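Summarise this fold before class:
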Amino acid sequence: MTEFWESSFIQNQTMWGFEPADSAIRTKDFFLKKNVKDVLIPGIGYGRNAKVFTDNGMDVTGIEISKTAIELARESGIEIPISHGPVSGMPFDNKQYGGIFSYALLHLLSEEERLKFIRDCYEQLKPGGYMVFTTISKDAPMYGKGRQLGKDYFEIMEGVKMFFYDSDTIKRDFGDYGLVDVSEILEPNKNAEGKPPFPFLVITCHKLK
């Protein structure tokens, strides 16, 4: 699996540009409102969603499976700490964070991986902290395409497996982890010319204690 993502990343490199996703901008505003000082970004990629947080005074730590992506982040001047490895290896440190932001990663994981990822993120939140996940919706045009692997889970092309969320599965997976809000957003961002936006869901959870 690591080799697949490495080769895929090398082919696409900075395919989404260096502008942050709209959901990252929205999350930055939310974190500022909640006085979040430090942020963990699992699946940080080449860092396009990191700068919007660092530019607003937040300390950011990343996790990324692709060495190529980390190298590109460094080449673009992103010098934040980035742990190399899959999110299944969390935690990579014993720190707790005021905020966690995960963009377009959750739906690429199997059920077992998703549940562990959500739990691991929650455990790395400080009391009072927030975690925000942007994930693909069942309303996306890819839903139901390709080979079905399970309920709402499809291999939409060779090597690319996606789980598509709706309100019921969000409540099921996040109900024990401080779920406070679910909203819709179209991604990629408005600056990604030539790339049609898809419906995504922004899931927000709050750790009370």
In short: Residues 1-14 have pLDDT under 50 and may be disordered. Residues 111-123 form the longest helix (13 residues). The beta strands are 38-42, 59-64, 82-84, 97-103, 125-136, 147-150, 153-157, 160-163, 179-187, 198-206.
